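Example 5.3 — Nuclear transport factor 2 family protein
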Amino acid sequence: MAMTMDTYLEIEQIRQLKYRYFRALDCHDWTLFETCLAEDVKTALDSGKYSFDGRAAFVEGLKAIMDRPGLLSKHQGHHPEIEMLAPDRARGTWYLEDHVIDLDGGWMLHGTAFYQDEYVKRDGAWQILATGYRRVFETLTSPLPEQFKLTASLFDAACHA
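Solution (predicted structure tokens):
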């Protein structure tokens, strides 16, 4: 597909979609997260360890894993490579860096991966049709070091008093 100004605008909309996906995930904003996904989305996160068919299953699955104040995460997508396949279809590769702290479980994860996404434009808006990632590396610290101290959290009411 030829690169026109319209193509660049479509690619920017897809970039904004993925950024919103990560922000919604880390903020536990499941309503916003849902808007990023096609109803028939398919997922294979962590090389298929977390696979879901359909938006409702994906959102409920992630809520079951992540929707608690003691689980904090940072997901950042870097270096997007987005290819327009048709006016309403695209695919992308993103370099992920994630950091997860589980205060209740007493562990912390840091890793990187490559996301492979497919996008579809329906009713004028881009949505994620398929998504998954394979790890480049992952490190786990458990138990949390004695000197580890959380000094701020979006989910800790005491931090907002």
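Remark. The helical segments are 5-27, 30-35, 55-66.
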